[in-house]
Amino acid sequence: MDSTYYRKGFGLKREIAEDLTSDYHSDLVSRVREQGHSLVVGDLTFRLAKEFGFCYGVDRAVEYAYETRRKFPDKRIFLVGEIIHNPHVNQKLEEMGINLLGYDDDGEFDFSGITADDAVLMPAFGVSVRDFERLRQIECVVVDTTCGSVLNVWKRVERYANSGFTALVHGKYYHEETKATVSQVTKYENGKYLIVRNMDEALLVCRFIEHGDNLAELRERFARCTSPGFDFTRDLARVGVANQTTMLAGESLAIAHRVGQALRNRYGTAVDQHFQSFDTICSATQDRQDAVIELMKEPLDVMIVIGGYNSSNTNNLAQICARAITTYHISDASCIETDAGRIRHKPVGSREEGATDGWLDDGVHCIGITAGASTPNNKIGEAIARVLETKGLAVPV
Length: 397
Known about the structure:
It is a single chain. The chain is an alpha/beta fold. It folds into 3 domains: 25-55 and 284-390, 3-Layer(aba) Sandwich (Cobalt-precorrin-4 Transmethylase, domain 1), CATH 3.40.1010.20; 56-147, Rossmann fold; 149-281, Cobalt-precorrin-4 Transmethylase, domain 1. The chain contains 14 helices and 17 strands. The chain is globular. The N and C termini lie far apart (51 Å).
């Protein structure tokens, strides 16, 4: 790459450290962590998951955005979509003069206003091969914040495509990361992909592999989830499994196992020629899911999960918690209405925010707290403080 492409920042970490601390640090969260991830105030006890909030990839992406602003004070800076799925972080970048790019009438990112004099940030999710090539043709400065875990998945699906295997990706077809991932197979003339959202969809694929009697159903169900010209009979003969890094780890592993079993049932001892699978769940996602499962062993009364409503990893944390305990997925502290005794939250499986009155009644004494990998610590601290305020309790100093 030439001098207009940057993937390792600009060496300005010290210069931006104060800004990052001011914008995202929480003294309260630091104290809770130091006290064994526990806080007792009055009759309330908070239990904070051992792993929560910003992961390394998010830290890196946000840091590079701040470095870019510092490096190019006089350039117009654009961001392809959102840097991460957290509205407060993206709003902060906009306040710094970084322009978030939306979609044009054709559903593609609108690069029409970008010139060679500008700088463009690629988000932590990465961008599609086509979008990357479009940016390089403009000859603007490109700062690539794509997470290393995402890049590992890209390498895996590229190997599948290069070896004649269809990349079966456990993910959301509309998610930026999955779009970028499946685009990697298009580098190869015969590269193919199929996206499955969950085990139910994976079982439909397995049924076809084993019995071949549901072709019409597959064509309808996966109309937006396959590579151009996908032939279910031809392209499911050799399959390699990968996943969007923020999916439920257990489900990804279960899908890989079931697909492998279907191909084994079809091809017997020759299955190695027809099936490949490598766990591509990001370690930070796995750590946060494991930590919340461990936290569920505590005698909690309710669970609060903090993070953007469009954050895949945050939604999955809420899903895990809701299996065992009353769970409230909130976007930030403003969802906790102190005067009304109400909490606004996104119920698991819903796309709309709902509300629950009297959620913090006299029977609630122990509250579990976790946050998605794109949630800064100050938003966690603000939520804890808001709960205390609702009960008329002061934040300890």
